[in-house]
Amino acid sequence: MSTGNLFNFRLSQYETKAYIALLTNNPVNGSQLSRHSGIPRARIYDVLSALKTKGMAVEVTEGLYAPLPEEEVLKRFRARFESEISQLEKKFHQATAKARYDYVWNIYGYDEILSKAKDMINAAKFEIYVRLFPAEAEILNADLKKARSRKVQVKYISMGIPASNFNLQVIHPGFDKIEKELNGRTFDIVVDRDEALVGLFENEKEPSTSWAKNHWFVIAARDSLRHDFFHYFLHKTYDLGKKLSSSEAAMYEIIKKDTLSFLYETPAKCL
Predict the structure, then answer these.
(1) What are all long-range contacts of 236-242, with beta carbons under 8 Å and residues at least 24 apart?
(2) Contact 220, 117 (CB under 8 A)
């Protein structure tokens, strides 16, 4: 099958309007369908011919048309879509030039960014580093909890008072100052030491983040988040003059051992 035939079941605007009008009123002739759908009479028979070719309409008697039931149309489209996606997948696998991960890609739009973050979290196998402000945490915490239930180690820097608690979690000192100074909220996720999504949700600007599986980009992003844990430990012991709790001391030992040797070692055991 040539790539030109892929997704050949897509409907034009007129075809969509005609089919919906047929569902509402049938059987009808071309003139009646033109009135019901708003499609010019000069085009209506070409549109009906296209619907017949796609198996979405039938001529029940000469000059009168009726639609294939919508559930049958959806079933056919779904089967054809899955078949053509499968063929497209084979073509991609057969391509000689393989995708490279040297690049850093930009992702725009709040919903798109959060959707990508959810995909990364839900695909995580053993480790997630995150640095989140409460607005994004409220959206992603349910997925992070599911990851934790799969025995994925979640290492969480909260940029505010957290609504949910994780075993390896600290509150970033001075988070309120950071948001004010940057005029926005930082957003960082590193999954399985393999991919990173980082950016800043600036006030009154279109949100954008950078996504990459580039080796050194991921290492730098991950190490930045790892050192935020040390920021917390130093702030508590040095600035505030307090001792780490037993759970914080255990967390410190885990983060301390979580060095660049991660390239060769098994991940530290979760608390």
Answers:
(1) 239/173
(2) no
pTM of the model: 0.63
Task: Name the CA dihedral angle for 257, 197, 193, 233, rounded to a multiple of 10 degrees.
Answer: 0
Mean pLDDT over 70-97 rounds to: 77
CATH of domain 104-263: 3.30.870.10
What CA dihedral angle connects 112, 113, 117 and 120, to 10 degrees? 70
Give the distance, in angstroms, between the CA of residue 52 and the centroid of all CA atoms in the same chain: 37
Angle value at C-alpha 202, between 201 and 203, nearest 5 degrees? 120
Question: CATH top-level class for 3-94?
Answer: mainly alpha
Asked whether the beta carbons of 254 and 268 are under 8 A apart, the reply is: yes
**Phi/psi of residue 106, each to 5°?**
-95, 135
> Identical fold at 3-94 and 104-263?
no
Q: What distances in angstroms separate CA 99 from CA 9, 70, 93, 95, 122, one per listed residue?
A: 28, 39, 10, 10, 22
The secondary element (H helix, E strand) that includes residue 191 is: strand 184-191
2: Cβ–Cβ under 8 A, 6 or more apart, which residues? none
Q: What is the mean pLDDT of residues 42-63?
A: 87
Q: What is the pLDDT of residue 271?
A: 42
Average predicted confidence (pLDDT) for the chain: 85
Q: How many CB atoms lie within 10 A of CB 267?
A: 15
HEC profile of 202-217: ECCCCCEEEEECCHHH
**Gyration radius of the chain's alpha carbons:** 27
* Reported confidence tier of residue 60, pLDDT bands at 50, 70, 90: confident
DSSP state of 95: -
